[in-house]
Design brief:
Blueprint: E1 6-7, H1 13-22, H2 29-39, H3 53-62, E2 63-64, E3 69-75, E4 81-86, E5 92-99, E6 104-107, E7 111-112, E8 130-131, H4 134-148, E9 161-166, H5 176-187, E10 199-203, H6 207-216, E11 220-224, H7 230-236, H8 245-253, E12 264-270, H9 278-287, E13 293-299, H10 313-325, H11 350-361
Parallel strand pairs: 1-2, 6-9, 9-10, 10-11, 11-12, 12-13
Antiparallel strand pairs: 3-4, 4-5, 5-6, 7-8
Length: about 375
């Protein structure tokens, strides 16, 4: 019966209250439902025992609590886990858990495919199909919670899934309204209750939406930078042609809530002989002067057909040292999940590869069929 009833996952608090009015119930019933869906992780109305039977029957007649399906789950040798999440229209996106010692971050997608065509990024080779809905964005987090058995929401801070990074497939600020609705659901203190300080949204530089994001959501901001000159960034991150470095960095300087305790992260993929010189590092210091900032240096993760190679280890270390000497944190990201194509810049719906493989292996049909 999946898909025949309205899905309650992804509705805002107000929308959920409005649905209660539709079925002749008081809006406060939405609070009970919210607790069961987002604190307990329950999908079966019959098991929502604090809700009276008459209301449960009304809910069963018109609604579902529906999470996305999982087509494939893979766990890397380094404990990174990736889910190929199947959506109702048959499309798929990838979601990744990046573990640390006793916790970790979920890297979530905001679109199916991407329009940005960043030349170092595998996702950029997959055309944009559509934006994800709030239900599909929240659903990725719920799928991960299911996999790690983290329902009900831990209240002692001991959760494995402790952070979110909106750094998966797509550009979050090109799907701002849906992303914002989903993150507000996740941050709500009576449900999943993940603090805004534990959520980082990464953008390639959609300048008009950056201030709105900080004012409306207050989450941490990460900038997918990767170059210190417009002519190079125009190639690596083509949106730079519309919003060049000076505009992007001005938006960072005025980002609401940024300070030395909540610094903006500048992500910088290390490409051999392209953007990794000592002069590039010094120019980077000059560009971000006056911005509460830290850096995340990302060794390039190769993918089939990519035109770049990763910078040499000693080059990356030298680059990091220059930034450190300039007074900024500049850790070198340890690549995670490379063996399951889950590392930064490698995400691309596995279904595309599998479908191509199936077509290649399909025997020829006899003439006339």
């Amino acid at each position: 019966m999946t898909g025949l009833y309205k899905n309650l996952v992804g509705l805002s608090r107000q929308q959920l209250a409005d649905e209660m009015l539709v079925i002749g119930e008081q809006p406060f019933r939405a609070k009970q439902l919210w607790h069961w869906i987002y604190h307990q992780g329950e999908t079966d109305f019959e098991l929502m025992t604090s809700i009276g039977k008459p209301l449960r029957e009304k809910l069963q007649a018109a609604y579902e609590v529906r999470k996305p399906a999982v087509s494939l789950e893979q766990t890397s040798s380094d404990r990174t886990r990736k889910w190929l999440v199947k959506l109702e229209d048959g499309n798929e996106v990838e979601t990744v858990y990046i573990p640390e010692e006793d916790r970790g971050a979920i890297c979530m997608s905001s679109q199916i495919g991407c329009t940005l065509t960043c030349t170092f990024c595998h996702t950029g080779t997959q055309r944009l199909v559509r934006n994800l809905t709030p239900a599909e964005i929240v659903g990725q987090f719920m799928v991960a919670r299911d996999s790690y058995g983290e329902w009900p929401t831990p209240t002692d801070g001991g959760r494995m899934i402790s952070n979110i990074v909106m750094m998966g497939m797509g550009e979050p600020l090109f799907n701002y309204d849906n992303v914002a609705t989903a993150l507000k659901i996740i941050m709500d203190g009576e449900g999943i209750a993940l603090s805004k300080r534990r959520i980082t949204l990464s953008t390639s530089g959609v300048v008009p939406e950056i201030e709105r994001c900080g004012r409306d959501l207050g989450v941490n901001l990460a900038i997918s930078l990767h170059a210190v000159r417009d002519e190079l960034r125009d190639v690596l991150v083509p949106i730079n042609k519309k919003y060049p470095l000076v505009e992007l960095l001005n938006a960072c300087r005025t980002y609401p809530g940024s300070n030395n305790a909540r610094r903006i992260t500048f992500e910088y993929v290390m490409l051999d002989g392209i953007n990794d010189s000592a002069a590039d590092a010094r120019e980077l210091l000059r560009l971000i002067k006056g911005i509460p900032a830290k850096f995340n240096l990302i060794p390039f993760n190769p993918w089939p057909g990519s035109a770049y190679e990763c910078s040499k280890p000693h080059t990356i270390r030298r680059f990091s040292e220059i930034l450190l000497d300039g007074g900024y944190s500049a850790p070198i990201r340890v690549p995670r999940g490379r063996d399951i194509m889950a590392a930064c810049g490698q995400l691309k719906s596995e279904s595309q590869r599998l479908k191509r493989a199936a077509r290649t292996a399909m025997p020829e049909q006899p003439a006339g069929l």
